[in-house]
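Exercise: predict the structure of this protein bound to magnesium ion.
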Amino acid sequence: MAIEPATQSSIQLAAKVLAGGGVAAFPTETVYGLGADATNAQAVLRVYEMKGRPRFNPLIAHVANREAAEAHAEFNEVARKLADAFWPGPLTIVLEKRPGSGICDLVSAGLDTIALRVPANETARGLLLAAGCPVAAPSANRAGHVSPTTAAHVAADLGDAPALILDGGHTTVGLESTVVDLSGPEPLLLRPGAIPREEIEDVLGKKLGEAAISNQPSSPGQLASHYAPRARLRLEATSIEPGEALLAFGNTALSTDGPMVNLSPEGDLREAAMRLFSALRELDTSGCESIAVMPIPDDGLGEAINDRLRRAAAPRGC
Ligand code: TXA
Ligand code: MG
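Solution:
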């Protein structure tokens, strides 16, 4: 299986894979991405196929810096403000796509907008510089499953389908980027994520609007069932039932002889975010039928953690 520790030479190799129309997985500070040259429709199609991702769910285009981003989208003042404040970093900005950007329509699933991100992770930045093209990359998991925070998670979901998996260790943030839509008159929060809403609102000097709920979600990260392990989740658990595994948070008297992970005994939301997806995978492999999840505060990063947990708990198959 082609898992390579991230080094100068393996990053060059991954860049060659992308240049040749192949697919390579790589770490970002949030989760691992499954990358392809965003200007190559055949390569992008392979990404959709490998993930089993519906074609109506657009991908994020990753670029090395804001100058590169401006070649692909119509930046406005608000976009520049957020980019200056949070790039490189775990913020994705949706903007009107620029004519002649070169990014193929499949990346944005036929929308007039494009989602752009400049990641901070050194391996990701090295790859983007070496590749010299925008890199379309969804999270490197099977569609609907828990996002990968290690190279082993990627291999567990996708096997040897990607030509190469760059191993950069466990991701430091552990939750996906925050997605903000700046293509309309008001900034909208499409997906809560690694940068808490409050930090973005502080920079904007105003509240973020919510994307309207509809049958055709404007950001399919809003699909009800997503990020789901095999086991069922029972949220807001204050007790544990026979046969359940426990996903704990903070200093708790709840305990079990069965499988258990405490996301952060100190009650630190950053630590909890980093460990969430690993913990769900770990409890899942214990073979339990159900996971009792203790309440997690909803402020700061808690909003994104609770968003992922609700989707992981949602009824499947819709
Ligand atoms: O942290 C992350 O964002 C990771 C790393 C790899 O960058 N990527 C990631 O990608 O989570 P993915 O494909 O799993 O989620 C991208 C989200 C989806 O909810 C998608 O619907 C939304 O971004 N999105 C992409 N393009 C969009 C667009 N033009 N308009 C609205 N939403 C868009
Ligand atoms: Mg994803």
